[in-house]
Specification:
homotetramer; alpha/beta; Alpha-Beta Plaits; Rossmann fold; 8 helices; hydrolase (chains A, B, C, D); formyltetrahydrofolate deformylase activity (chains A, B, C, D); purine biosynthesis (chains A, B, C, D); PurU_ACT (chains A, B, C, D)
Chain lengths: 289, 289, 289, 289
């Protein structure tokens, strides 16, 4: 798992399942001087299902330029198998924008991991509907933009946010951003907005899940990282985790324990997204972790 | 936690919170030659809330008969604090009846632990709406009764079951019993019927939760042990747990992994119930585990 | 993961890493009408390391007999890459012998899973150095042999055991067998004897690990399934797990909680072994779970 | 668990076990207008063992000054039962000094929780044997002192550190401080130095435990928070946790995953210490969490 990032590339493929896919792909790569270091595959059904493939490979001995490799792959392999596919190169860091409201824990966790070099991304901007976290963010050398938002100005505020984001980021993380994005906004970033919800979805959708969890008397609390779709809290789940609680924990305790869960689950989901380990299949995910 | 069972007794108390409760109770017990070996307390709110107390104590030096101790406690302590209370003696094993349909894993787990001496109960009867598990149950020397049940005969079948149960058992465990008990049946055993639901409640109430979990694409499956109330899957939760799954797990895999969760969660909940560690407070539980 | 067992085959390969292995193997299989349903690979080092490959494939359209397929694979692929390899067929159930002393929990867990169809093995014999568990084993329709063993008769007793085992079993599980096998015995079943040790190895090797854990005051107990080598408790680890404990747990409590861990860890390890998911690499394992 | 800190006090007691202790203590407190909100007790053996008691209580209606309360408790209760005891008041924040080398994750975790108000301590100083983390620490408004240390200057450097610490702190946290403290240093802060060791002790004592874990091929890595005694990695364990790893994880991966464990385990242990939830009993701890 600890590969030299600068020569690492990844090929993600989705296509109808049929025999011979892996043979065709790996033979193609072999003939172009590529050494495969990770290979994961999944089929929803060998007879008529969808096939998913992720390859991580090293390109120091690649015999052609990237564009030529990709053109050759399209012609020699991809078109025959009707593949949706893409190659990404670890040297090209994806650009991650962050949206946040007032809770800083999920945001700080990501910034801290990024600063340590654990998250190989660029961070063009942090946008918040509150001014509170400016100083904390700017300390990391990251741009902070305050875009106030309320019911009356929602469309206008989203337009300002999109002006800051479009062309500047490859994906967006909602690090406890407490406003609901419009369907139009979401549609601009399909499968490219990650949210952390502070419950074990589908339990406790909607507002104040820790209060809901307390009221129901659950013995575990949870957190869920998922891609945002137009249906609130219904998008494809990337990762989840739970922690044990008891009758001794009141709502503030659940929030405190939940923060730790949220930080870990979101960090893991973002890492997997950045490393191209997540493929969306309908309303579910394939995670080649 | 490993006490001599034959001289162990437990006192469970629920009352309005106010200062002095623990002092009054422990002073009373001290004066009657009792040695307290476990003490757990909980208050929902020190100002006007409910107070819960569980004491485990050893009675070898008890200076009065049980009835006298209980009468003295009522007069000297309980009436003053408006306590709901009861004392149970570990030497008096509770009688646990089991209801099961066709899945044997939860049933076998309990029978196996009982045979090993891990569960200090008597088992007067296992009732099933199917004949399948007779031999497996009778091997343990336990009585098996087949009571067929369908929509037309539901009331009559429940009457037969109650005839087998009433006066014969102190509590009932639904070890994957797949029929819904009527409100009348449930009302006969308030807070004394334990069910194992094969999901992390409140996610996936109702039928076939593993299929529901698969369809939603969750990354954890769960199991929940709860007391049965008239509202299906809504009763007070005693214990829950989760296990990690992935896109590779299809519904039969979820069922297989879920069986292990169900066995453990149910066994833990039953153990806690038997040791008088669970107090119901509205729709939630206090578990002094 | 839930494949039709009767047409499932698995190919396990270990060889020096070099480019082109996956391409060669998958192309070969494709040309013989095989549909690959799982593929896992691992390299200790793409430059000069060892390469490990596990394929699960479906053989309903296999175009040649098994022997012909294997001969062709050897000639066309395996010899070129200097592979250690084997193909196993899920229809050929491996034969699992069990050794046990007095504690029945690990044994019962395996027998129970086997009876349910979760463990696709045949069980030719259970051998014990005590007579205690005969009835419990024979109820499952499994042969039970009591081979007493003590210091004076050790060699002779092992000879009796080997007479019962050799040619009758493919691998052996020590389901809490408390005697140490001789180096000669172990050498007969290299990487084919699985033991469950009741601690998180390498902590607490040797006798009475729960007492050791209690004395050290650990906050987690563990269990470890490993292949047996001539060095006690030093063999390649297949699986481990831990459970939280506290100062309230005395040694009998640790034993009770530990039993649940041991059952689960051993069952998982045996399952992985049976499904050819474990490859030994020196003193470590690759587990394609 | 979420009490008003400014009126919260805690009483910790260790004494020989005998009947009547809880009655005496709670009756005393009741008569002084104190409302007990948490009570935990533990006995190593009701017959001749040690008894441990922790009470958390609210003092808004306390009828005497602190000193008078404590004097009265000593005379009326503590001397009779030969108690070691102390009362602490949540309003008096303990002073926590931090020692660190180059790895910042454990340090940052504690500073971040402290800044959020999760850790109710004052932090007089962070001391490091490297200059690297000065800026990161000073951003939190915390004093940073660089005290270089090597074999030749060890005694002198420790003297400088003690000059910074003595009288300025109540306890010390080694947040990945990679130098071994002398026995003399340790003796100055008995049961008041907390270390985070990056393994599941007692496995992998000493240097580079992640490399040791990798070499042994374990399937879980761990972290252990413990009090420092003169014997390296042998002190009373406060908390531990583990995380699952596989053959895919090389040493840098173990370090990365281990950082998350270390942060959580250390933060939990420090929190428990600060809330007076940990009592040392020989080489083990009682944790009333």
């Amino acid at each position: 798992m600890s590969t030299e990032p600068d020569t690492t590339a990844r090929l993600l493929i989705t296509c109808p399942d049929q025999p011979g896919i892996v043979a065709a792909v790996t033979t193609f790569l072999y003939h172009h001087g590529v050494n495969i270091t990770e290979l994961d595959q999944h089929s929803t059904d060998p007879e008529g299902g969808r096939f998913f493939l992720r390859l991580e490979f090293q390109t120091p001995h690649l015999d052609v330029p990237r564009a030529a490799l990709e053109r050759a792959f399209r012609e020699a392999v991809a078109s025959h198998f009707e593949m949706n596919w893409r190659i990404s190169y670890a040297a090209d860091k994806p650009r991650m924008a962050l949206l946040v409201s007032r809770h800083d824990h999920a945001l700080m966790e990501l910034l801290w991991r990024w600063q340590r070099g654990e998250l190989r991304v660029d961070i063009p901007v942090v946008i918040s509907n509150h001014p509170d976290l400016r100083e904390a963010v700017e300390r990391f050398g990251v741009r902070y933009e305050h875009v106030a938002i309320d019911a009356a100005t929602h469309a206008e505020s989203e337009a300002r946010m999109l002006a800051l984001l479009d062309g500047q980021c490859d994906f967006i993380v909602l690090a406890r951003y407490m406003r609901i994005l419009s369907a139009e906004f979401v549609a601009r970033y399909p499968q490219r907005i990650i949210n952390i919800h502070h419950s074990f979805l589908p339990a406790f959708v909607g507002a104040d899940p820790y209060q809901q969890a307390y009221d129901r008397g659950v013995k575990l609390i949870g957190a869920t990282a998922h891609y945002v779709t137009r249906d609130l809290d219904q998008g494809p789940i990337i990762d989840q985790d739970t922690a044990r609680v008891s009758h001794r924990h009141e709502v503030p305790d659940l929030r405190r324990l939940g923060r730790d869960l949220e930080r870990q689950v979101l960090a893991r989901a973002v890492r997997w997204h950045v490393e191209d380990r997540v493929i969306v299949n309908g309303n579910k995910t394939i995670v080649f972790a």
